[in-house]
Design a protein that fits this description.
It is a single chain. The chain is mainly alpha-helical. The protein contains eleven helices and seven strands. It folds into two domains: 103 residues, no CATH class; 134 residues, no CATH class. The protein has a three-stranded antiparallel sheet with strand order 5-4-6. The protein has a two-stranded antiparallel sheet with strand order 1-2. A two-stranded parallel sheet has the order 3-7. α1 packs antiparallel against α2, α1 packs parallel to α3 and α9 runs antiparallel to α10. The longest helix is centred in the last third of the chain and has 25 residues. The protein is globular, with a radius of gyration of 19 Å.
């Protein structure tokens, strides 16, 4: 699979990341999420018809898949475009999302995964948070993500019931560090990229990286989109590996 970038282009075992400037604002993201939450297919089509997908492809795919399922006019073409870009990009979690959108179009079987209204951003926080304090579990009846510290204070009778709870073990910061490396490869200013590459060497890499990146607000915002997109994909892939697929909350 593959897609438009800031994407990791894979050639054999190597991965390169072409540079691309950001276009999604806080307002356009808010409108995307609001349209999906409200089931407003017309607003979704109007928004996506004028914007590229690449920076927020994981969020776009979910929203478009819902709209196709609801038979919103004009969304089939958006879904085809989404599938093509997911296929070209091929980040972790992109294949799972592409299959879900294909199923909504009636082009393939529904993935044999149980629907679960889980917030991928919250799940990512459990998976990639502090190794000591991170982790937790998902309530399979509601899709709620429960951090480890919350659960330690609120024990229930069915605390160990595998029919209700899905454990989430923190996987640490390795993937987050790789996100910084890949993002640096998208920066066109060689001197600035070099400063960031030096910053991520040794202890305190995340803090130094963000301190330097904060000097350029446009790049800091672009990194937030880049990292969130990759985190959502990893959370989706983890969920699929455990037999579930994310769906919108009722």
């Amino acid at each position: 699979m593959a897609a438009g970038g800031p994407g990791v282009r894979r050639t054999g075992c190597a991965a390169t990341v072409p540079s691309m400037r950001g276009t999604w604002s806080e307002e356009s993201l808010r409108r995307l999420r609001a349209a999906r939450h409200a089931g407003d297919g017309a607003a979704l089509v109007a928004l996506l018809s004028g914007l590229p997908f690449a920076e927020v492809l994981q969020q776009v795919g979910d929203a478009v898949g819902d709209a196709v399922t609801a038979r919103v006019p004009g969304t089939a073409d958006l879904a085809e475009r989404c599938i093509a870009e997911l296929g070209e990009r091929d980040w972790e979690g992109d294949a799972e999302l592409a299959r879900q959108v294909e199923a909504a179009l009636g082009r393939g079987p529904v993935p044999p995964l149980g629907p679960l209204p889980v917030d991928l951003e919250e799940l990512s926080g459990l998976l990639e948070g502090d190794p000591v304090l991170g982790g937790g579990r998902i309530d399979l009846t509601t899709g709620d993500c429960r951090p480890q510290l919350v659960d330690s204070d609120e024990q229930t009778e069915d605390d160990e019931d595998p029919e209700r709870w899905l454990p989430v073990w923190c996987e640490g910061s390795r993937d987050g560090y790789r996100d910084m490396e890949l993002f640096i490869a998208t920066i066109g200013d060689a001197d600035f990229a070099d400063r960031l590459a030096i910053a991520i060497s040794g202890r305190g890499a995340f803090r130094r990286f963000k301190d330097i990146l904060a000097r350029r607000e446009d790049e800091l915002r672009r990194f937030h989109l880049f990292a969130e997109e990759r985190q959502r994909g990893r959370a989706r892939a983890w969920l699929a590996g455990n037999g579930y697929r994310p769906v919108a909350r009722p």
